[in-house]
Structure formats: C-alpha cells, structure tokens
C-alpha cells in the first residue's frame, strides 16, 4: 500500500476483543511504519526519517519503527574500511536527534544504527526510545549474514545482548533486526521474554540479474514473518527500505501481521510511505488460548537445539 493510496499516510485497523495479560500494556496501540529510499546524502536520509516520525505521530502513532540503518545507504555491499567512518557511538549525535524526536512527538521509536562500540568493534544495533525521549533499551543484531552484497560479517560483530523484551510506556517491544527474521529460535525467545510485538528493521532486496528468483525470495521472506506471528502469538512488524542502491533493489513491502497471521497492512514494493495501523493487544491472548503452542511445547526434548547439527 503506497502513500498515494493512503493519501500522504494513512491509518488502518486490525482488532479483535479478548482479555489481555497482567502487568503489560493493554488496549489498542497504534504502530507507525516509515519506509524510505536512501541516497548518498546522509543528512537528507536522517531528515526524512525524522520527518517520518513526525508524520506518523500526526496520524496518531504510539510507536514508530524506522528501517534498518536508516541514516545512510546500505553500507555492506562491498568490504570498504572507509565505511567504518559512518558508525556512531550510542548515545551520540544521531541517537540524540532520534531521542529528541521521540520526546517532541510523544512516541516510542525503534531506530536501527551502525554502532561504534569502541575502536575496532562495531554492531548493527536497534535502539529503543520511550515517548519521553529516554533510552528504553538497546539490542545488537545477533545473526550476521555474509552473502553477495550483504557483507555484514566484515563490519559487524555478532550481538551479545541476547534476545529481549523492552518495556516502554506504550508496548513491550521485541527488538530484532533483518537477518534475525529467518530464525524461529530468535522470534520464540523474544516472545518468551514478554514481547507483545516483534520489530524487524530491515534492508533486504533483489540483485539485478536474478529476476527469476525475485518472487520466490520475497514470498519466502514474507512467509517467515507471518509464521513468527502465528507460532508465537505476537504482532510482527517489518519495516524494509525501498529503492535501488547499486545492484540491489530493496523490495520494500513493509508489513504488519497480527498474532493470528492476518496481514494488517503491506506497503508498496517501490514507493516510500508512512502508515499507521491499530493493533489490539487483546489479540495476543485470544490467539494463544485458541492455538496454545506455548502450553504444548516439549521443553524436556529440545536440548539439541543448542548443537550446531544433530547428534
């Protein structure tokens, strides 16, 4: 769904009544997705992200998610030492601007940054800011890919934060990042930590010259996201970039799935867009009592999951 079809942004509802669990935010939360195309102009990229936060807030968002590494073009298409200059400390100048936007608009923000932890140590990091601008949590991407034009192992150390739920004033946030999307263990442990919605800032796309793979690659990605929502009874939010960068065409299609697997919204493959959707947190309890996967897990039999391969 493009910005045009929603009229410079929009609001959609996906709700279903049921009881909510204790000690967690309840009711309807409005989640904003900011899907953008990046250029070599870093300041323009940051400005469009901040404008997206403002637009989502104007549409009533409680929580806003930006795409992976929103401040620049995707840096990992080649192994270039000069790219490390794009990294920033956390907290630092970039995150302070996001924190100020969160506070100014009274929204929770999930922001993905190229983190300089110390000289020679870098991470792909999701920082969560509460609606008062305070840093509510920080998650370092656990699964690091290494594929043609996704040479992230050159840049990023694997995360050491573990899987988590970040409490905020609006929602229990489950922060994961892009390549984490393919791992059911990551989604399961994040849900078990108490997350009500899993957020995946994302940079995934198609390579020029592989057009015969475009549809099956996208459909595999989308299927994984939907399956995480169903298997864990949580909302799943993926915010992907769009546009061409070198031989990569990022496929957009940012999406929200309800705990039942219902697709609440899907954005365009091609166009930048800001959209806000309503998510009734009561749907978590509704889905989990009807599909009691947590009740029926055989935790006594899963020890071999910690092995690289079977015995």
Q: Could you walk me through the main structural features you see in this protein, from its secondary elements to its overall organization?
A:
With 311 residues, the protein is of the alpha/beta class. It has a single domain, classed as 4-Layer Sandwich (Nitrilase/N-carbamoyl-D-aminoacid amidohydrolase). The protein contains 7 helices and 16 strands. The protein has a 7-stranded mixed beta sheet. Strands 7-8-9-11-14-15 form a 6-stranded mixed beta sheet, covered by helices on one side. Strands 10-13-12 form a 3-stranded antiparallel beta sheet. A hairpin with a 5-residue loop joins β5 (121-129) and β6. α2 packs parallel to α3 (93-105) and α5 packs parallel to α6 (214-232). Residues 1-9 and 11-22 have low confidence and may be disordered.
Short characterization:
It is built from seven helices and 16 strands. It has helices at 3-6, 42-58, 93-105, 152-155, 184-192, 214-232, 282-290, and strands at residues 11-14, 28-35, 63-65, 108-118, 121-129, 135-140, 166-167, 172-175, 197-202, 205-207, 235-240, 242-245, 248-251, 255-257, 263-266, 273-280.
């Amino acid at each position: 769904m493009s910005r045009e079809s929603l009229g410079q942004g929009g609001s959609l509802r996906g709700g279903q009544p049921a009881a909510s669990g204790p000690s967690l935010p309840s009711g309807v939360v409005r989640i904003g997705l900011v899907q953008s195309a990046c250029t070599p102009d870093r300041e323009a990229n940051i400005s469009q992200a901040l404008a997206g936060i403002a637009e989502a807030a104007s549409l009533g968002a409680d929580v806003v998610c930006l795409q992976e590494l929103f401040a620049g073009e995707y840096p990992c298409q080649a192994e270039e030492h000069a790219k490390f200059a794009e990294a920033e400390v956390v907290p630092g100048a970039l995150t302070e601007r996001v924190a100020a936007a969160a506070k100014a608009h009274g929204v929770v923000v999930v922001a993905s940054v190229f983190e300089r932890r110390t000289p020679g140590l870098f991470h792909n990091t999701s920082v969560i800011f509460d609606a008062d601008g305070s840093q509510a949590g920080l998650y370092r991407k656990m699964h690091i890919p290494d594929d043609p034009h996704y040479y992230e192992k050159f840049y990023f150390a694997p995360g050491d934060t573990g899987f988590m739920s970040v409490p905020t004033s609006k929602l229990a946030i489950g922060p994961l990042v892009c390549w984490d999307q393919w791992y059911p263990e990551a989604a399961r442990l994040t849900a078990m930590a108490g997350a009500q919605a899993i957020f995946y800032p994302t940079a995934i796309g198609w390579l020029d010259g592989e057009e015969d793979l475009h549809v099956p690659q996208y459909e595999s990605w989308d299927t994984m996201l939907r399956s995480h929502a169903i298997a864990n009874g949580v909302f799943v939010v993926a915010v992907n970039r769009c546009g061409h960068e070198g031989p990569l065409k990022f496929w957009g299609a940012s999406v929200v799935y309800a705990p039942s697997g219902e697709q609440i919204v899907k954005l365009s493959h091609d166009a930048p867009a800001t959209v806000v959707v309503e998510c009734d947190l009561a749907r978590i309890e509704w889905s989990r009592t009807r599909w009691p996967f947590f009740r029926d897990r055989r935790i006594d039999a899963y020890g071999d999951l910690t092995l690289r391969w079977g015995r």
